[in-house]
Design brief:
The protein has a nine-stranded antiparallel β-sheet with strand order 5-6-7-8-9-10-17-16-12, with no helix packed on it. Helices cover 18% and strands 31% of the residues. Helix 5 packs parallel to helix 7 and helix 9 runs parallel beside helix 10. The chain contains twelve helices and 50 strands. The longest helix is centred in the middle third of the chain and has 24 residues. With 799 residues, it is an alpha+beta fold. It is globular, with a radius of gyration of 28 Å. It starts with 17 loop residues before the first strand and ends with a strand.
């Protein structure tokens, strides 16, 4: 007799009372009677890791997200046992662990609650796949707001939203569409003007509910793996973001040309078309540093090959492009065409480098070349092999950078758009299914690409670009937001995505200017360019199915507007490079939402349009057609209109005029903005003078400019120039002090300082306590002077 018995699904399981406690240095363990272990690790006084295991065991501890060079160490750690709870105390926070149910509450040293568990950790057995669906729910307090989470196409404040992190090819995605191309499970909470952060380091499909289902509950959960999250205490958003960025890492400095303007299309071919595009940039004097080759440069879309009909001599073409100041960037996808005559395919077959399904056969999927197999980039041997495939392209032909696309991995003609969930991966010696490895697949591909490009580009710096990413991918490459659409709505989306990515540790990011799908009109293209020149990565990319999208494609009026804004980006190149330096040194995001700039001003908590570029420029794009201007909010401080020098006090919303040739752009009072002359490409001209726009302030403001050789690694050996300026303005005086670090000698010897808002007429000038002849410093009215670059103190007196 056979009896059918259905396994009773037990639903949510919850930890019960603590029966064991122990401390091992920075790790504290709590074990419950029903087999839950909570491991609390104090990384820093303000950074704590919470890790939960069930059935008395943890999984092997491994993460692709964590930076090997993360700063660790705390000043104080004590654990006290009280009647209802254990209390873990650092110099910044107190953590209460409830003895009855393992619930966690975290408070600051003033006993203000930062975050507290609602149901807390709970789990549900996954009978379909094994393991657990792991869950965490926390109280959403009144007025609490949420930010971060990477490339979400939603309002910067995620309160009331639910999002899903499952890296997905999302062609022509829309506002609030989920999921998208990246998985960055990190958010910043803001409660009573105090900021904290949570990073849920779990590479399975993860979900976050920011008080969407229940107005007083914020929760996050994953389809498998462990409940493993990091808590960051501010109290400023700046401190939260910098701590998270330190944990997950930053890139090296890019070559300066990578911050220039880039032009791409699906696709530029044959060779003559590429040359014609490059020639027209130079003929029209529109600055550009890089041209991209999409998949059509390959032979039958086979990676690491060239179509000899379209590109008979790629090495010669690339050399000619380089002579004219253009870098060539090539695309490489993960899908390897099944073709026994194709050397890349055969190498992977011979070495067992392709992904296999659960029962043994190789996983196959259709991509551009047709039926393909996919390398397992979570295997270090595969990454090493893949890196070496770039030798001919980089060292042999002279390609300057690589663009990894379709690396979610995207698979065509299947409902899931990606690999089967039963595909097996090495996961660096921790074998798993695609359920766990999917979100890191693109990250590990671009990691291998980065290692190869860096190896064969040496002694120059690498440039790599990715579409798919998991937290920490910023260590290897730039990114962009995927296949957007030529609509005004997508202009708004691009703006919020850049702010969100920068606050999520990923600053080197941009969008497809003008939209990838469909065709913008000239007004939309111009408005998008006006925004995108203030994004860290600046590239036009479009689908060839929808017409031309070069800067000259929309008539002379738009061409002139676009040229002027690209020129402005090149003028601001030292400011932009300094922003990047600050990002890698401090983890400070290159763009900041207004709430990041001033979290105590509640007017900033729901602003989406305005953002801070670097630390001293305020940008607000025009995001609707036929606009002659717009209303915008000015945060704390005083702001000079970049175009008119009008000074506007912060803390107010105002109408700002912005006809088609202008964007609302403002400079912080007291700022010193470094500028280069307009160049057609980085390195075209030797910089003979450093321009500095000096914006008067009654009071003090600090500025800086970082420079090096713009290429290579000598900057790591001290061959850089970091100039810090302290500006102090008084009623009839302006004092500028300079402090210099590094031993790089800049090619120029002179600063040309242009003054804005001086309330007095210049009468005398002292350099290092010695009065100078006004003719010697080329005093131009009350507008500008020229001084030697190595002064310690510049003192300007007026009346």
């Amino acid at each position: 007799m056979i009896t059918n018995t259905e396994i009773e699904k037990r639903g949510n399981q919850i930890p019960n009372h603590i029966v064991d406690f122990k401390q091992e240095n920075d790790k504290i363990y709590f074990t419950t009677q029903n087999g839950v272990i909570l491991q609390v690790t104090i990384l820093r006084d303000s950074v704590v890791r919470f890790r939960y295991g069930t059935e008395y065991v943890f999984e092997p501890d491994f993460s692709y997200a964590i930076n090997e060079d993360v700063n660790l160490g705390y000043n104080e750690l004590t654990v006290e046992e009280e009647i209802p709870e254990y209390v873990i105390i650092t110099s910044k926070i107190k953590i209460y662990i409830n003895k009855a149910n393992l619930k966690v509450q975290i408070v600051d040293m003033d006993d203000v609650i930062l975050t507290e568990d609602e149901l807390g950790f709970h789990w549900e057995e996954n009978f379909d796949f094994g393991g657990n669906v792991v869950k965490m729910s926390k109280v959403c307090h009144s007025g609490e707001s949420y930010y971060g989470m990477g490339d979400k196409a939603s309002h910067t404040n995620l309160k009331g939203k639910r999002v899903n992190n499952w890296v997905t090819d999302s062609y022509a995605y829309g506002k609030d569409q989920e999921p998208l191309y990246k998985s960055i499970p990190f958010y910043i909470g803001l409660k009573e003007n105090i900021a904290y952060g949570i990073f849920f380091d779990n590479s399975f499909s993860t979900y976050f509910d920011f008080a969407a289902e229940k107005r007083n509950v914020t929760s996050f959960w994953a389809d498998g793996g462990e409940m493993n999250y990091y808590f960051f205490y501010g109290p400023k958003m700046k401190e939260v973001v910098e701590s998270y960025t330190d944990l997950t890492g930053v890139p090296e400095l890019p070559p300066l040309w990578a911050l220039g303007f880039h032009q791409s299309k699906w696709s530029y071919y044959p060779e003559q078309k590429v040359k014609d595009i490059a020639s027209k940039f130079r003929k029209l004097n529109i600055p550009c540093d890089a041209i991209y080759l999409d998949i059509d440069y390959m032979e039958g879309f086979r990676c690491f090959t060239w179509n000899n009909q379209y590109f008979p001599n790629p090495k010669k073409m690339i050399e000619e492009m380089e002579d004219d100041g253009f870098k060539v960037i090539t695309m490489i996808d993960p899908g390897i065409k099944i073709d026994r005559e194709y050397w890349v395919y055969q190498q992977a077959m011979d070495n067992g480098f392709f992904c296999r399904r659960a029962d043994g056969p190789h996983f196959k999927g259709k991509v551009w070349p047709g039926e393909c197999k996919f390398p397992d980039f979570t295997n270090p041997k595969v990454r090493e092999w893949w890196a070496d495939l770039y030798k001919e392209m980089i060292a042999g032909l002279g390609v300057s950078g690589v663009w990894n696309d379709m690396n979610e991995p995207a698979v065509m003609e299947v409902p899931t758009k990606t690999a089967n969930l039963d595909v097996r991966h090495d996961y660096d010696g921790h074998p798993c299914s695609h359920r766990k490895a999917h979100n890191v697949y693109g990250m590990q591909m671009v990691r291998a690409t980065y290692e190869g490009v860096k190896k064969y580009m040496f002694p120059r710096r690498p440039f790599v670009l990715t579409r798919a990413a998991y937290a920490g991918t910023q260590r290897y490459c730039a990114t962009w937001t995927g296949d957007n659409v030529a609509t005004w709505e997508h202009l708004w989306i691009a703006n919020v995505q850049m702010q969100r990515l920068c606050m999520s540790g990923y600053s080197f990011a941009g969008s497809d200017i003008g939209g990838f799908a469909e065709q913008p009109n000239g007004e939309l293209f111009a408005r998008w360019m006006q925004l995108a020149v203030f994004h860290p990565f600046c590239r036009v990319h479009s689908s060839g199915d929808h017409g031309d999208q070069e800067p000259w494609s929309f008539g002379d009026e738009i061409t002139n507007i676009v040229r002027a804004f690209i020129e402005l980006r090149y003028q601001l190149m030292p400011y932009l490079y300094t922003m990047f330096y600050t990002y890698i040194k401090e983890g400070f995001p290159m763009l900041q939402s207004l709430v990041f700039y001033d979290q105590e001003d509640h007017q900033t908590h729901f602003r989406t349009d305005e953002f801070i570029f670097g630390k001293q420029m305020l940008v607000c794009p025009v995001q609707e057609p036929n606009a002659q201007g717009r209303r915008m909010y000015f945060p704390k401080g005083n702001w000079y209109n970049y175009w008119t020098d009008e000074l506007i006090a912060g803390g107010v919303e105002r109408w700002v005029s912005a006809e088609i040739h202008r964007i609302p752009l403002f400079v912080k009072e007291g700022a010193m903005i470094p500028k280069y002359p307009v160049q057609q490409y980085v390195g075209e001209k030797e910089i003979e003078k450093l321009g500095i726009d000096v914006y008067y302030k009654e009071g003090t403001e600090n500025s800086k400019v970082y420079e090096d050789q713009q290429e290579g690694y000598d900057y790591k050996k001290g061959r850089y120039s970091l100039r810090r300026f302290k500006l102090t303005g008084k009623e009839n005086e302006l004092i500028i002090q300079q402090f210099k670090d590094g031993n790089f000698i800049t090619p120029y010897n002179t600063f040309k300082m242009t003054f804005h808002g001086l309330p007095f007429t210049i009468e005398t000038v002292e350099l290092d306590n010695e009065e100078v002849d006004l003719n010697d410093i080329k005093l131009n009215g009350n507008n500008s002077i020229e001084v030697g670059k190595d002064f310690t103190e510049l003192h300007i007196f007026g009346k």
